[in-house]
């Protein structure tokens, strides 16, 4: 079943298009500080603190990472060094796309304008976007919106900048907590969940599920 062709297809970037390697970066940085049998728990705590850090007022993403890993170290009784946090943050621009993304985007990029709304700093995002292999009409960051997802302000900013309403877009993400729950609350009817395996299905939020970016063309009838 396909959606009505939207004016824009909007995307989360990290995790959905770009392979989100924050966990692997933390594992690498803390390999000599965290015992192997505790590493999964350490990384899971880091994930949870990152979400908590973006729910308040905007701050640079370097601070989000710094605060999250510092709080994680406190919980796990691991020595914190700001240089470790900085190394994890500075790895972000090196991350590339999921293997299915360039070909999947190529099927739609010249038919419908593509847009990114990302929890990123302005200084990070372009390096990751350049690796996606497709032209993007607009790229919006949390820094531009002065707010991180899952707060609504970023979505509101994006729609204002595009000059359209919730009915005019299809929003695509691999995350319910950061994107699709908020999109649902905002009345965005056309939603695609790219199932990357890092969150369970949540049918209440009324989306179409696809296994990878190759399924996007079928959703919009291309």
Give structural notes.
The protein has ten helices and six strands. The protein has 222 residues and is of the alpha/beta class. The chain folds into two domains: 8-19 and 96-219, HAD superfamily/HAD-like (Rossmann fold, 3-Layer(aba) Sandwich), CATH 3.40.50.1000; 22-94, Orthogonal Bundle (DNA polymerase, domain 1). A six-stranded parallel sheet has the order 3-2-1-4-5-6, with helices on both faces. It is globular. This is Haloacid dehalogenase type II.
Give the domain tally: 2
Which word captures the global form?
A: globular
Please state the CA-atom Rg, rounded to the nearest Å: 17 Å
- How many helices? The count is 10
Order of helices and strands: EHHHHHEHEHHEHEEH
Average pLDDT score: 96
Strand content: 5-15%
Largest sheet: spatial strand order: 3-2-1-4-5-6
Largest sheet: 6 strands, parallel
What would you say the CATH architecture of the largest domain is?
3-Layer(aba) Sandwich
Q: State the CATH superfamily name of the largest domain.
A: HAD superfamily/HAD-like
**CATH class wording of the largest domain:** Alpha Beta
Low-confidence stretches: none
Termini Cα gap: 12 Å
Query: What structural class should be given to the helix and strand makeup?
Result: alpha/beta
Q: Looking at CATH, which topology of the largest domain would you report?
A: Rossmann fold
